Amino acid sequence: MTSGRGQRMTQMNLYVEGYFYSGGALENGPWNLPVMGGLNIIITFVKIIIMKKGGYVYILTNKNKTVLYTGVTNSIKKRTYQHKFERGSIFTSRYNVTNLIYYDFLPTIVEAIAREKAIKNMSREKKEKLINSFNPTWDDLYEMILDQE
Length: 149
Fold this sequence. Notes:
The structure is a single chain. The protein is α+β, with helices and mostly antiparallel strands. It has 2 domains: 41 residues, no CATH class; 91 residues, GIY-YIG endonuclease (3-Layer(aba) Sandwich). 28% of the residues lie in helices and 34% in strands. The protein is built from 5 helices and 8 strands; from the N terminus they run βββββββααβααα. A 3-stranded antiparallel sheet has the order 1-2-5, with no helix packed on it. A 3-stranded antiparallel sheet has the order 7-6-8, with helices on both faces. It has a two-stranded antiparallel ribbon with strand order 3-4. The longest helix has 12 residues. The radius of gyration is 21 Å and the shape is globular.
């Protein structure tokens, strides 16, 4: 791939300690990044975007706390907003399931999906124990997550 000025452009993706680094065009560098085994990676990118990879598994309930909905997402704020103010899903819209009562971040979306499946297979009693260990009063956590991520 080349830029408009004929410079060679390179794309690099690097996963380090739970963060994903993605870079673009060759300029404003180079940067020397030491890695294991005495090797160095020379980074020469215009920008490096840092994104926290992974996913959230979450549980919502209705105002009477009679319905539980388990889901998975890469953005807990955005998805909870959709459930509360837009159309999150047919099920949550039909049963007015809008209160976030449990969530957990996992390092990869694959792990989050596996955890979602495990929670969905739990009995109601086990789900309630899980929720109670995280949020004993079953308060809506939406306001709390607005400061996160």
